[in-house]
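Researcher: I'm preparing a figure for a lab meeting and need a structural model of a single chain. I don't have an experimental structure, so a prediction will have to do for now. The sequence is pasted below. Please return the structure as tokens so I can convert it later.
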Amino acid sequence: MNSVQLQQVKQAFRERVWDLLERERAVPLGVAGHIPDFMGSEMAAARLAEHPDWQAARVVKAVPDLAQLPVRIRALEDGKKLYMASPKLAAQKPFYHVDAKSLTVPPSEAATHRAVARLAQSVDLDAMPPIDLVVCGSVAVNREGVRLGKGAGYADIEVALLHEAGLIGQNTRIATTVHSLQVLDEDLPETEHDFRVDLIITPDDAFECKPGRSRPGIVWDHLTPEVIAAIPALASRVHSG
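Model: Understood. Here is the structure written out token by token.
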């Protein structure tokens, strides 16, 4: 299967899951093209907060999607150091640090992506501490930890950059919060640059995934010159190399 065919198969899975979620009224209408803001995301965040991986984590990197807003709120309420990526990683300093100890607004507001862009400190990779737990969104995921995002590829680049910078390693845990309908009991397509998750949290359950392949760093052959040029953290690594 060539790369074009693989992307077509991935997209078919995404569209199937988006349609299922809307049909079952597990998401608002118009979810296609997005990480689903699923019903029960608050319960999933609460279940994640009960997990030992969360309780042991002091530094959390979470995605800015609406589905993971309850996770980000809980991180601030629990006093964790919270990091989020800037939109499309396009900033010279591509991550935001939200300091729970110096909030001027409630965690429920501070954790929104709009407030983060306005209030949080922008930081480069060399100013970040090691990450204890990564929380990502997914469109679909299976019990082996293979996940599909919305197709833009930024989550994979974030994880690859953190890996290359030594901020996450093979033992760093990656969790995703999803609706149970997003957990598929079948094989999902993946490429060399796709990362897998270790922990799947739904409103009703938590699944440990089987140990999988080694976590990838940056797979340069999979990045176009346009993508590299648009992300300063990638462009600087090309130029320094």
